[in-house]
Amino acid sequence: MDEGGQTRGKTLSMSDLLFNFTEWLRTTFLVDFSLWISDTSLSMWLVTHFWAIPIMQVVHILSIAAAFGAILMINLRIFGMAGMDRTFAETERRYTRWIWWALLTLVISGLGMITAEPIRELINPIFWIKMILVIVAILTSLWFHRGVMTKLSTGGAITSGTKGGAVFIIILWCVIMLCGRWIAYAPV
Amino acid sequence: MSLYPEPTNIWESIEYSALGTTIAESTWMFPTLETLHVISFVIVLGTIFVMDLRMLGWTSNKFAVTATAKDTLPWTWGAFVCAAITGLLLFTSKASSYMENPWFIRKLVMIAFAGLNMMYFHFITYRTVTHWDRDASMPFAVKVAGALSLISWVVVVFFGRAIGFTLGIFG
């Protein structure tokens, strides 16, 4: 009663929050915009071809795998758990390019999925939470890795703060993947 | 007492077990397990790609193959174990539907193929690694193993997604 009741209360308020977010999204221009997208011939082509959506999802998953593998290698280098045969700068140079290319294919496949199912994505609170987190993750990574590079090139050492930053970025990307999966389960 | 019919085969027994029905009846367990499954196999794929691209001689060519293997393999294996456990739990909740789904069977076959390819590479081809460890261009057998690995994991992801889109339309 007590414990379970509390947990249930919390779950309810969380879904209430998401529900209210959805209600608000329904009052914005996004509804008309989504309807306009779903009327385009590209959107119609995508929804009438059974394998189009799963294939875009496959591209999206493969791209996040390539990006996350690279993100993991860079941040593990900070922990001294990978790439110890090379400098941080060499690790950065080896993997950053792959993150950018993977982000490009993530955006393209993501736009494709929005085009196919605009209401499911754009009138979805978890989708917007995910988009905000993606922007935060990209900006934090750029700022953080640039900081680590400057620090190391000027003779600085890796501190526990640096390690905390690396863990934060890895967790952030995991939460982004979590949101990606939960878009399908959002209370819309 | 049970709301479920008597199981007629092993897959139904799994599905109607306490574990299977708990996952199936819960609103959050299946999506949560799916999320953990996705994060796990994304790590599996991401680290395998790093290794495969080195084996193909496309990236990290300045660095030793053994160093790349040391960076990636513990993560590949750790994440693979997580993906297998979460995958098994997902399977438990709808065992008979999965067994009737051809894409599920194809996915298992493809994972087995990727595993065999990896074992052949590790136990046969890798024995001579000291001769080509630091080479920019890899021997033909290494390139073939890298290419087969890359292709088979891409196909595994496709089959995995195909299961999600076809579950329930077979059988």
| Main sheet properties of chain B | none
Count the beta strands of chain A.
0
Sheet having the most strands of chain A? none
User: Based on helices, strands and strand pairing, what is the structural class of chain B?
Assistant: mainly alpha
**Could you say how many structural domains of chain B there are in total?**
1
Element order, helices and strands of chain A?
HHHHHHHH
The sequence of SSEs of chain B as H and E is HHHHHHHH
Protein name (chain B): DUF2214 domain-containing protein
Transmembrane segments (chain B): 36-55, 75-92, 104-124, 144-170
Organism (chain B): Croceibacterium salegens
Keywords (chain B): Membrane, Transmembrane, Transmembrane helix
Task: Please sum up the structure shown.
The complex is a heterodimer of chains A (188) and B (171). Chain A is mainly α and 188 residues long.
